[in-house]
Amino acid sequence: MDFLVVIDFEATCEERNPVDYQHEIIEFPAVLVDTRGGGEGEDNKPRVVDVFHEFCRPTINPVLSGKSRVFPSYEANSNHVWFFI
Fold first, then answer.
1. Please, are residues 54 and 74 in contact by the beta-carbon 8 Å criterion?
2. Which of the ends of the chain has fewer CB neighbours closer than 10 A, N or C?
3. What structural domains and CATH numbers belong to the chain?
4. CA 20 to chain centre
């Protein structure tokens, strides 16, 4: 396997999620990693080839709870929160 795509979804949540709570993806990041490395010796480590990062609007619970807003990247990029993927 020469390349990996690493993803780490963030989703809506409540402080205490009810059993039937429907989580929705709100952040969709992905990193493409070349596992072959990029050089000789010490430099021959896996390397990041490309990065993708988008926020998306939840539709079932469009108003985020305080718990969903505490994700650091959501706070730092709050002006981009409602871009669609």
1. no
2. N
3. 3-80 (3.30.420.10)
4. 23
Report how far residue 77's alpha carbon sits from residue 10's, in angstroms, rounded to the nearest whole number: 14
Output the tens digit of pLDDT for each of the chain's 85 residues. Answer: 899 999 988 888 887 878 898 888 988 899 999 988 766 666 778 889 999 988 888 888 777 766 565 554 544 444 444 333 3
Which residues, listed in sequence order, are joined to residue 81 by a DSSP beta bridge? none
For residue 17, which of 67, 70, 72 has the smallest C-alpha distance? Answer: 67
Beta bridge partners of 28: 54
Interatomic CA distance for residues 42 and 38, integer angstroms: 10
Which residue matches tokens 């981009």?
A: 80
Number of helices (H) and strands (E), helices first, in the chain? 1, 4
